[in-house]
Amino acid sequence: VQYELLDGDAAGDGRVRLYYNSVVLASSLNAADVLDQMLWHINAESARRTGEFVLVHAGAVAVPGGAGLIIPGVSGTGKSTLVSGLLHAGFGYFSDEAAAIDPIERQLHSYPKAVTLKDRTVFETYPELPPAGVRPEYVRNHWYIVPEEIRPDIMAPPAPVGHVVLSRFEPGAPTTIELASRAEAAAAVGRSIINIGRYKSRVLPLLADLVAGARCYSLRSGDLRSAVDAVVAATTS
Fold this sequence. Notes:
The model has no long low-confidence stretch (mean pLDDT 88). With 237 residues, the chain is α+β, with helices and mostly antiparallel strands. It has helices spanning 31-48, 79-88, 121-125, 182-191, 196-199, 204-212, 224-236, and strands at 3-6, 16-20, 23-28, 54-62, 68-72, 92-95, 98-101, 107-109, 115-117, 143-145, 159-169, 176-179, 215-221. The protein has two domains: 1-49; 53-236, Rossmann fold (3-Layer(aba) Sandwich), CATH 3.40.50. Helix 2 (79-88) packs across helix 7 (224-236) and helix 4 packs across helix 6 (204-212). Helices cover 29% and strands 29% of the residues.
């Protein structure tokens, strides 16, 4: 599998072209559109080629000491922002996009992509975190963090899911974290399964096992730093 980006100077027409295995996949005068298409295609191909993993649309990190933590939810709910804050706090990294779970071993595995952020909250809260160097013309309201640039050993080994955090960002809201029911957590994870068409009802025993062995929390916050502190306190005490 090979992706190649060629800027408009190569063809003389100003268009940026994305090639996938030597076939044009996208073409635009706007470089950011082409990069968005490439990232979408990479994620889609990863899901298609995932084999037997159950993929949950979730942020996924490892609590210091080993247990996995997943943050299920749709795009725009702050998963990547919270993941970035937890990486800064010393957690290991699985993914900010898809929690890959082995349905036999019930283990969480890495989907090691760069963290994608839609605003600068993380960098304003933790200015020491290094944004990836991306050419400005390829960025449109997106910023990236290469996890290994935070810590070389940040990638987490396979681990069982020990925590499920149902996170809700509300601007200006005080930060609260409390225990959630396992039924609520199982429903949230189930709604977030990307490849549910492959497993259908066969995923139900997996959901039951995941939440049976996990502590489940409901997090409400309007502030990243206090949200991170709350999750750290709840999961490492």
